[in-house]
Amino acid sequence: MYGAAGEEAKQFVKKAIAFYKKAGKAVAMAEFTNQKGPFVAGEQYVFVLNLKGTMLAHGVNEKYIGMDFCDVKDSDGRSFIREIVEVANTKGSGFVDYKWYNPLTKEDLVKHVYFEKVDDVIICSGVYAEMWQDLL
Question: Among 9, 28, 107, 122, which one is least packed by beta carbons within 10 Å?
């Protein structure tokens, strides 16, 4: 269902998890928030939530850190962060799609987000489906 775009997001999360396990939580959160670090690649980046939906790290906007995102809705009014938290807490990992404003195209586009629960955090990364397909 998620094809190459989903696999790209999944591999980015796997890379982040390996780093998290090697470097430890504090170092990993700092690096995940580093806009010039290895966890930001163009429009793809890592973001990390706690098990209740509070942002712990964000690859492109450090102002989000510490904010409760559980009730944030996408362009269609879907509580996608709540869905990520619920799936992570029950199944451990998964995909969620949501529509989000893309500043480059000035459009609301579908984003595929893959996430995994590791310890007491949820490590996530997403790709714009349409943008990724254009690169194939």
Answer: 107
